[in-house]
Amino acid sequence: MARKYLLPDYRFKRLSEITVEDLQKLGVKAVAVDIDNTLAYDCQNEFIDGADEWVEKIKKAGFKLIIISNATFRRAGYMGKVLGIPYVAFAWKPRRYGFYIACKKLGIKPKELAVAGDQIYADVKGANKVGAVSIYVDPAKMETRNLIFFGRRRRLEKPVLAEFEQNHGYGIED
Ligand SMILES: [Mg+2]
């Protein structure tokens, strides 16, 4: 596995810490957000640290927003409706097609898209593969479901994050 696809471009503690100024610096037109452990707590409808207000703020600043989720139409559709933004469900991240569908829906190129999510092997890898800006968001809470899958995933993420930390901190550096 090529490590270059795994390293995020940027890292934030929370989605709500990404500012309008940050997005302007990145020169993107839109932000694609993951649901579980990024917008909302894993498998819950409760938003993390005002993520719903953050969506409003980013929208008002003129950026487009879209959900790209591996979750069902029911969950992604619910979130899209509550937040008033389009969505791609069953995206099978890190496969490219969900990201391409999102770009098509928004009428933008992948390089004009910032992708924010809490999984290196789904959100970051997929974003990097299509040439979008990848933003890793620290998971709010570790998963309590699919422990074998997520336990392994989270262990595999550790060396990638350690490598990232050697050269970068949180946020957008000048
Ligand atoms: Mg997630």
Which descriptors would you attach to this protein?
174 residues; alpha/beta; Rossmann fold; six-stranded parallel sheet; 40% helix
The gist of it:
The chain is α/β, with parallel strands linked by helices. It is built from 6 helices and 6 strands; from the N terminus they run βαβαβαβαβαβα. It has one domain: Rossmann fold (3-Layer(aba) Sandwich), CATH 3.40.50.1000.
Please name the CATH topology: Rossmann fold
How many β-strand runs? 6
* Fourth CATH level, the homologous superfamily: HAD superfamily/HAD-like
Distance between the termini: 30 Å
Bound molecules: magnesium ion
Q: Kindly state the percentage of residues in helix.
A: 40-55%
Supply the helix-strand structural class. Answer: alpha/beta
Q: Helix and strand layout, with pairings?
A:
Elements: E1 10-12, H1 20-26, E2 30-33, H2 51-60, E3 64-68, H3 73-83, E4 87-88, H4 97-106, E5 113-117, H5 120-130, E6 133-137, H6 147-167
Parallel strand pairs: 1-6, 2-3, 2-5, 3-4, 5-6
The chain binds magnesium ion (MG).
Residues 34, 36-38, 117-119 line the site of magnesium ion.
Can you characterise this structure?
With 174 residues, this protein is an alpha/beta fold. The chain has one domain (7-167): HAD superfamily/HAD-like (Rossmann fold). The chain is built from 6 helices and 6 strands, in the order βαβαβαβαβαβα. It has helices spanning 20-26, 51-60, 73-83, 97-106, 120-130, 147-167, and strands at residues 10-12, 30-33, 64-68, 87-88, 113-117, 133-137. A 6-stranded parallel beta sheet has the order 1-6-5-2-3-4, sandwiched between helices. The chain is globular, with a radius of gyration of 15 Å. The N and C termini lie far apart (30 Å). The site of magnesium ion has 7 residues, from loops. Magnesium ion binds next to loops.
